[in-house]
Amino acid sequence: MRRPLAKAAIILISLALPLTACSRNPDDKVITGEIQARLYRDATLKRRDISIIAQQGVVILSGQVQTEEERTKAATLANEVRGVKQVINQLVVVSPAPAEQPAAPEMPVPAVQPPKSQSGPAPRQ
């Protein structure tokens, strides 16, 4: 009688394990991947250098963006991902580098000649 009861308990436990695994939050790799996908779907943020680290549901965003709005949007997108408990936003707002202008070609500088005196030659003594 004990053996059939033990078998039934093992079967019930093995059936219940997948259900408990589904109710858990996603692991950090899944969280990181989902945040990367969301940032990449944004036309502006996909061009920014943003690093993502997830550890036990705590996400750290670091890198550079060009506006405060981009910084806030990245944190909002990360915070919407299932399993994220906290977002630490270390993104730095930097103004875009000015577009490099091609150097103007150097123009030769004309030689400066001393002004000619208006009076004739110096008198002899």
Describe the fold and architecture.
- The protein has 125 residues and is α+β, with helices and mostly antiparallel strands.
- The protein is 38% helix and 18% strand.
- It contains 3 helices and 3 strands.
- It has a 3-stranded mixed β-sheet with strand order 1-2-3.
- It is rod-shaped and about 140 Å long.
- It starts with a helix and ends in a 32-residue tail after the last strand.
- The mean pLDDT is 80.
Short recap of the structure:
By secondary structure, this protein is of the alpha+beta class. The chain is built from 3 helices and 3 strands; from the N terminus they run ααββαβ.
Structural class: alpha+beta
Fraction of residues in H or I helices: 25-40%
The H-and-E topology, N to C, reads as: HHEEHE
> In whole angstroms, how far apart are the ends?
146 Å
Q: Strands of the biggest beta sheet: in what spatial order?
A: 1-2-3
Count of alpha/pi helices: 3
Name the shape in a single word. rod-shaped
Q: Note the beta-strand portion.
A: 15-25%
Q: Report Rg.
A: 35 Å
